[in-house]
Predict the structure.
Amino acid sequence: MKKTLVVSYAPRKGSYTKQLVDEFIKLADGKTEITFLDLVASPPDLLLGDNLNLILYGGQPEYTDEEKKRLSNHFQLIQHVLDADHIVLASPMYNFSLPATVKAWVDTIVVTDKTFEITEDGSFKGLCEEKKALILAVAGGDYSEETTHEYFSPTIKRNFEFIGIPSEQISAFGVAQYPEKVDTIISNAKAEISKVVGQWY
């Protein structure tokens, strides 16, 4: 059975992001082995001085038990991605971009010699090419027009591409801007989720 990693950041009460995550899990139940990662309950470690330098320069010739314990969450998050056939990332948009907690997850999984490598000619090659990703994006404003600017979508798409994972995005934009249309916006997103589940499994 295919394995699916569902990564969710939905801290707000009455979260529309959570509604979309719940819909995916309901539709995919029994069709795939799901690993659920709640970034609110289990946030990634920020890349600060101690752990960042340990990641970059430690482990020679191998990590000590204490170092392994310090980086256990970091290693586990990477392994989640390596083990999955499909990845679902669900998040609201904050101030035109990724919430800090979601960006911290991205920073954790984009790592040399694990999810990408530098080739002999100095170019980059993703090491996760057999996987697929789905992004569930919710925003209060409507960023569906090409003339509007938001950095959530291109940032997460580019990072997935960098490690070799093609992605598609289902957007529920305008939930605050068009309160009278919320039910339609969410219903349309759920219908698109159903299509992806049918294609994947």
